[in-house]
Amino acid sequence: MKFTILMGSPRSQGNTAALLAPFLEECRFLGIQTQCIHLYDKKVGPCLGCMACQDVPDSLGCVQKDDFAQIFQEMEDCDVIVLATPVYAFFCTAPMKALLDRAIYAGNKNYGRTKGAALLNGKRVASIVTCGYRPDRGADLWEEGLRRWCKHGKAEYLGMFCRRDLGKSVPFMDEEKESGVRDFAQAIYLSIRMEEV
Fold first, then answer.
1. 71 in helix, strand or coil?
2. CA-to-CA separations, 171 to 86, 125, 165, 188, 189, in angstroms, rounded
3. How many domains does the chain have?
4. Of 35, 61, 100, 159, which sits 20 to 30 A from 84 (CA to CA)?
5. What are 113-147's pLDDT values in tens digits?
6. CB 157 within 8 Å of CB 125
7. What is the domain range of residue 160?
8. CA distances to 37, 82, 147, 184 from 24, in Å
9. pTM of the prediction?
């Protein structure tokens, strides 16, 4: 089993990285292979809206020559895509938004001369999120957007684990967050195992 984690935080030692660390440890304990791609280290330009990809029915067909195709290949080759991001303005960070825009557009051939495939059809997607408000007010728009992104791309949404940052006077990580995100890893693992039985 393989998880590809798309890390959307600009801070390698920030809250999202702190929440992700025990998730990755739990994955290793469960025997899950993980790959973490730091999107701020990659070059992924925004979608140009040129529609050239829509006339390539069985592959991406994007005209931009950057890191998008390589990242998308990793998304295709794994069992679960995990989107890890802080929420700054009620949605994911800019590199992740650029990636998701291109993945949903080039990955779904709905607008060309002939209708083609959904390249992430059946792919499982989960999210690990940090934000400054209560999750139901800080990450609700992100989660709804992700649900729609999955539905449009025929992917399976597995859920979100989100925790709030209470400010510099309160340490972000605590026992509840660590055990909760480990439980989240286990729940994803078990849901896949149940499907395989």
1. helix
2. 16, 29, 8, 27, 29
3. 1
4. 61
5. 777 889 999 999 999 999 999 999 999 999 999 99
6. yes
7. 2-196
8. 13, 11, 23, 11
9. 0.95
